[in-house]
């Protein structure tokens, strides 16, 4: 699509539709005053001759547009990932220095990547979005508006490429699917699934932490006002305490670690090593059994060399990943309930035994055998009055569904990059896009050959041990693990494919992709690879 007037028309239609869907009241002059372009990007993007435009849209979202003097015709629009929607006091691990809600504009994954793209002649743009938290609809609207401002301010823009990470990847994909012709190519990275799929994963894990280890964790149905905020912050503290206690117990006795004192589980259940309970929670919720430190395979030299990889490592991986997943569940539940006006997480009818499925056999040793597994699942059963379930508010669920969801109706070149061990946005979110795309092809809503999936997988073995046999946490997070943990070269590889596709109108060929990933041992492309869907979709 090279007709800039048509793009401007599409922007107007998209903005109007989103405003109507969000029931937003705005002045009849739908567009805010144009950006201030009086400054330069220096010193933020040093060396390059770049004009930096800053503005605030009609809904209060800050945005930036960076235009290099030697412009190549392509605008790249970035959508950032989820940000906390509440100020936080200093909290270890979560916010050591405290946290203030961040509304700043973001035009690229990092300043270094922005500088590299500007040097190549690409214009960049991005919004800080008017609200934070799970702000999917707001982000789609803000991205649409910044495209409008960019092409209005700089008519030389000929093509628009869109990319984003996590929630920003989801908003980029939904923008491209719902508005054919508005963007010329899209790259959703570490793609997030829907609000309900994500909160189910995080909520299941947190509910299990509450049920097994500390029933005083509130988890959901937070109060309004200051009281609710205090409950949320208190929950974060309790989660950190639980995970600190679990880590200490496993370190002291890896084979038979004790349960936390805050647990009210019966003595029979506490006879099971607590690491098995941690592993079970990861398996039933979908939290990865590979983390930055633990590969679920390696063991130290000595008597634990074999058993560590099979029995202990998967649990430690879930423990390392789960602390962040549980805290995310606290913050996300609080945010979604405020946004939707009621409880969103629901496990009232969840069958956790079914959720475990074949993983019960695969990880039998780590779960301490079938009898122990059955005992833990029995305690999590809906029939156990000591494990009360959570029932969502139907109107709140509907409100979060209305935020948007992937359709798979792909009409422009689409390139994904997803890590197989991402514990926040697992690869199943991308697999859902693949499945929806296949359905759209079958129904005639999409054509073949527009979607390319690149997977980022950690090595089979990467855990390191010191002379005493203790695992060593790497100074640099292991590529292929953690959330959106991509290297600068991986981001730049995607950017090149994205912009080439925006120019040609075609997705990169298999030969092109193979050449691009040839030197990166973590990346692979396999049309036969199928990632497990998030548990809520299975």
Key terms:
single chain, 538 residues, alpha/beta, 3 domains, 10-stranded mixed beta sheet, two-stranded antiparallel ribbon
Rg over alpha carbons: 24 Å
N/C terminus separation: 37 Å
Shape: globular
Q: Which range does the strand content fall in?
A: 5-15%
Extract low-pLDDT stretches.
19-29
Instruction: Please report the number of helical segments.
Output: 16
How many separate domains make up the residues? 3
Oligomer: single chain
Overall number of strands: 12
Portion of residues in helices? 40-55%
User: What topology, given as strand order, has the largest sheet?
Assistant: 1-2-3-5-4-6-7-8-9-12
What does this structure look like?
This protein has 538 residues and is of the alpha/beta class. It folds into three domains: 1-157, no CATH class; 197-398, no CATH class; 410-538, no CATH class. 42% of the residues lie in helices and 11% in strands. The chain is built from 16 helices and twelve strands. It has helices at residues 4-22, 111-119, 136-153, 167-178, 195-213, 225-252, 267-270, 274-285, 305-340, 352-356, 359-362, 369-379, 394-401, 428-442, 488-504, 510-517, and strands spanning 36-40, 50-56, 62-68, 74-79, 123-127, 159-165, 185-189, 414-419, 451-456, 464-465, 471-472, 523-524. The protein has a ten-stranded mixed sheet, with helices on both faces. Helix 5 runs antiparallel to helix 8 (274-285), helix 5 packs across helix 9 (305-340) and helix 8 (274-285) crosses helix 9 (305-340). The model is unreliable at 19-29 (pLDDT under 50).
């Amino acid at each position: 699509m090279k007709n800039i007037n048509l793009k401007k028309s599409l922007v107007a239609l998209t903005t109007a539709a989103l405003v109507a869907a969000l029931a937003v009241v705005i002045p009849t002059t739908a567009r805010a005053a144009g950006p201030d372009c009086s400054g330069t990007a220096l010193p933020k993007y040093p060396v390059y001759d770049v004009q930096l435009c800053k503005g605030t849209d009609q809904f209060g979202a800050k945005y930036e547009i960076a235009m290099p003097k030697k412009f190549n015709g392509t605008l790249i629009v970035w959508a950032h990932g989820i940000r906390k929607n509440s100020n936080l006091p200093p909290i270890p691990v979560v916010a050591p220095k405290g946290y203030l809600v961040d509304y700043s504009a973001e035009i690229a994954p990092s300043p270094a990547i922005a500088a590299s793209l500007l040097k190549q002649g690409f214009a960049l743009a991005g919004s800080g979005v008017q609200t934070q938290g799970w702000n999917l609809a707001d982000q789609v609207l803000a991205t649409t508006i910044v495209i409008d401002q960019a092409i209005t301010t700089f008519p030389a823009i000929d093509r628009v490429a869109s990319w984003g990470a996590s929630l920003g990847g989801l908003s980029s994909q939904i923008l491209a699917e719902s508005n054919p012709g508005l963007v010329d190519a899209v790259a959703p990275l570490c793609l997030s699934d829907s609000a309900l799929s994500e909160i189910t994963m995080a909520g299941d894990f947190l509910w299990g932490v509450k049920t097994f280890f500390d029933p005083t964790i509130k988890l959901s149905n937070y109060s309004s006002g200051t009281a609710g905020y205090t409950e949320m912050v208190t929950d974060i503290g309790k989660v950190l305490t639980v995970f600190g206690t679990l880590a200490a117990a496993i370190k002291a006795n890896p084979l038979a670690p004790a349960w936390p004192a805050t647990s009210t589980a019966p003595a029979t259940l506490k006879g099971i090593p607590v690491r098995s309970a941690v592993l079970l929670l990861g398996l039933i919720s979908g939290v990865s059994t590979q983390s930055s430190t633990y590969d679920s395979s390696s063991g130290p030299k000595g008597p634990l060399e074999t058993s560590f990889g099979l029995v202990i490592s998967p649990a430690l991986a879930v423990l390392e990943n789960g602390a962040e997943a549980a805290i995310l569940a606290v913050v996300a539940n609080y945010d979604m309930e405020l946004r939707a006006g009621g409880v969103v997480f629901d496990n009232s009818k969840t069958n956790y035994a079914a959720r475990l499925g074949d993983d019960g056999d695969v990880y039998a040793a780590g779960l301490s055998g079938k009898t122990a597994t059955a005992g833990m699942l029995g305690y999590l059963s809906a029939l156990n009055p000591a494990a009360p379930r959570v029932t969502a508010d139907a109107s709140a669920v509907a409100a979060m569904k209305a935020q948007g969801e992937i359709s798979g109706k792909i009409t422009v070149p689409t390139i994904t990059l997803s890590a197989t061990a991402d514990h926040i946005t697992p690869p199943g979110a991308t697999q859902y896009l693949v499945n929806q795309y296949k359905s759209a092809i079958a129904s005639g809503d999409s054509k073949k050959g527009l979607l390319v999936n690149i997977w980022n997988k950690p090595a089979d073995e990467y855990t390191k041990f010191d002379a005493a046999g203790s695992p060593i946490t790497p100074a640099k997070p292991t590529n292929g693990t953690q959330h959106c943990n991509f290297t600068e070269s991986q981001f730049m590889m995607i950017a090149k494919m994205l912009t080439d596709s925006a120019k040609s109108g075609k997705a990169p060929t298999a030969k092109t992709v193979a050449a691009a990933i040839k030197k990166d041992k973590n990346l692979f492309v396999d049309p036969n690879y199928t990632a497990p869907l998030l548990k809520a979709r299975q």
